[in-house]
Write a structure and sequence with these properties.
The protein contains no helices and 11 strands. The protein is an all-beta fold. It is globular. It starts with a strand and ends with a strand.
């Protein structure tokens, strides 16, 4: 099994920054086999793709709504993926989920095999 634990969420004012982390663990987890993604779910809305990164960091994908503001990165030695979020807006308020996929840096939710419990990000105006 693979466990994913997100951290770094919190309350921030509009225009501010947060850095989310996702630590992966588990007997069967190897960073070399998994692309990692971030999704988010705002109150009353469906979960949506935010960003993804390939196993070696060579490919990254972003939702249009976060391009130029968010940066995804990973440290395979630490089995950790990060999401640097700058210029935050109230519409970025959501629970942010980390996920692992063996199918590449996909934007498709159903192609992710493991999910974390989520971390709350609240952006005040």
């Amino acid at each position: 099994q693979v466990q994913l634990v997100e951290s770094g969420g919190g309350l921030v004012q509009a225009g501010g920054s947060l850095r989310l982390s996702c630590a992966a663990s588990g007997r069967t987890f190897s960073a070399n086999f998994y692309a990692m993604g971030w999704f988010r779910q705002a109150p009353g809305k469906e979960r949506e793709f935010v960003s993804a990164i390939s196993w070696n960091g060579g490919i990254t994908n972003y939702a249009e709504s976060v391009k130029g503001r968010f940066t995804i990165s990973r440290d395979n030695a630490a089995n950790t993926v990060y999401l640097q979020m700058n210029s935050l807006k109230p519409e970025d308020t959501a629970v942010y989920y980390c996920a692992a996929s063996r199918r590449g840096a996909t934007m498709r939710e159903f192609e992710y095999d493991y999910w974390g419990q989520g971390t709350q990000v609240t952006v005040s105006s």
